[in-house]
What we know:
Blueprint: E1 2-10, H1 15-25, E2 33-39, E3 47-54, E4 68-69, E5 75-83, H2 86-95, H3 105-116, E6 126-134, E7 140-144, E8 153-157, E9 160-164, H4 167-171, H5 182-191, E10 204-206, E11 211-215, E12 221-226, H6 239-257, E13 264-267, H7 272-284, E14 290-295, H8 304-314, E15 317-322, H9 325-338, H10 347-358, E16 363-365, H11 370-374, H12 378-393, H13 398-412, H14 416-427, H15 431-439, H16 444-450, H17 453-456, H18 471-479, H19 486-512, E17 517-519, H20 525-532, H21 536-539, H22 546-552, H23 572-576, H24 581-588, H25 591-596, H26 601-612, H27 620-635
Parallel strand pairs: 13-14, 13-16, 14-15, 16-17
Antiparallel strand pairs: 1-3, 1-9, 2-3, 4-5, 5-6, 6-7, 7-11, 8-9, 8-10, 11-12
Helix pairs in contact: 2-3, 6-7, 6-20, 6-22, 10-19, 12-15, 12-19, 13-14, 14-15, 15-19, 24-27, 26-27
Amino acid sequence: MCGIAGIVGSKTPDAEARLNRMSRAVAHRGPDDAGVMTWPESADRSQTAFTHRRLSIIDLSSAGRQPMTTRNGRFTIVFNGEIYNYRALRRQLQKEGVRFGTDTDTEVLLCLYAQRGARSLESLQGMFTFAVRDNETGEVFAARDRLGIKPLYYYAGEGGFLFASEIRALLVSGLIPRVIDPVSLSSYLSFGAVQEPRTIIQDVRTLPPAHCLSVDAKGRINEVTRYWHLPQDKFNGARIEAIAETRRRLEESVELHLVADVPLGAFLSGGIDSCSIVSLMTRRSNQQVETFTVCFDEHEFSERELARQVAEKLGTRHTEIVLSEQDLLASLPQALAAIDQPTIDGINTWVVARATRAAGVTVALSGLGGDELFGGYPSFRRASRVQRFAAPISLLNAGTRRQVANLAMRLMGDSLRSQKAAAAIAAGGDLLSSYASMRGLFSKTTRQALLNSRHHNGCVVERDKDYNIPDETLALIGNGQTNGDVFNRISCYELSLYTANMLLRDTDAMSMAHALEVRVPLLDHKLLEWVYGLPGSMKIGRHPKTLLIEALGKDLPAEVLGQKKMGFALPFERWLRTALKPFVAEALEDARGVARAGLNPIAVADVRNRFGVGARSTSWSRVWGLAVLVDWCRRHKVEVAV
């Protein structure tokens, strides 16, 4: 796990100095080593420079230093992530006559690319982003893992092609305008996170999951290509066979994710996902597993007792991280500084990552992905109900549906539930819109009031649907080829819209702020391909995650079964009325800062006041989301175009 950055085709004379600033901006991601490599301007190509910050995980020696170049000097790589099957790939390459000088997965990846080019992506099992320069042609190839576990941001403009593990590194280059993207701002207000491939910064893009791109020696993008899709095949065999194969792939994934030359641990809540991972870790690891749980004084949010029981039963060395309002307030400036893009989530990960790293653990396994694959979220059940309810409504025209939606609002009263129900009715049975309504942050009406019309008139296209998903994001979902199973379509939406854009993005930024590598075995692509190919009826029964529970069998502690889903959440609503209230007030009462973030100060004040008086129509996440957005824009000196 590391931080990478580069400039391709730069026309500025100080490209290396700019790259050094970019390197320092991601130094927290790799405290163990740093490397820079530059290629000067020539007749047919502009300057190029790569930098790498290393967090040593596999082969801790200096031989693993990056940028790394092949023995013949042809290719140079910077790589962030882990290739879990690198040992098997290494053996294959050795049979083909390839010689290795290190024990790193980096060299295996580099040599594999040298042998197979873009086809090498088909063989990789892991989480990764990397860039490889062909030193004969000056061209650069970059790629990102299938699920988007590791991030890669890029900018293509007059300053050349720039890429980095975090947006902050691109901003400090001085080559990118610090201007908010209005479409992304609307997307953030819709979901509490910007939807890929756009970012909060205008003209900066995310390389989407399962995509690769090539850049010529002048820094011009040749093409962006998708190299992997969700499977379309459906399993038609017996349930007992499905359970057995799910178990086998779970065990294989966890075993691969234990590959490391440094201490490993795991995040443990009282939930099924993390307990499943820890249970399989204890069976596969030859050392006592270390587990970490965040606890609160607010018992309704704390899973302390349940996690403690599970840890005792599984025999882990368990650490409880007690977090109070005062603790969070004291560390809030550091946590907010770690946010790479505005988000309503992530603080919880920052807290547990800090404590885990302080305990001497460099790698932690997480249960992230279980809800998306096995149907743990309420959206899986609610979407089916909405579909049945909306079937007759879909026969009505759009105007009549809006009238029915307004009637429902009046009958139910103005609340979060009524807003989402009305949005689903107005959507007319469209599954994606119904899902977006359930996941949405601000409704279309509130969002339009919040967006400062002086900056956004003509910039943001609001659709008839209640929640705004950018065209590029819709194209990604469509190209992902979701199948017709409602359960699997919801699974695809969760993975594409929520997990990739919030959970994985925040997990990476907030854990790497402490140089902690977080691994997600439940998002191993071979496991995902199998589970996604199963019909929804096999994955959910009377209770959520039926398939996962049956696959684990007696290895899943009985204590976690039947527990109400709590999630890895902080008691934010209470804290925003107490210890965190001054932070919200300071951010949202800054009328100039609010306006520079592209928001209408009057509408922002209305949202805050509604929360203050306990109105059912406003949740804590709305107030928090606005405060984080304003704080992030001020912190990074980013504002809307004037």
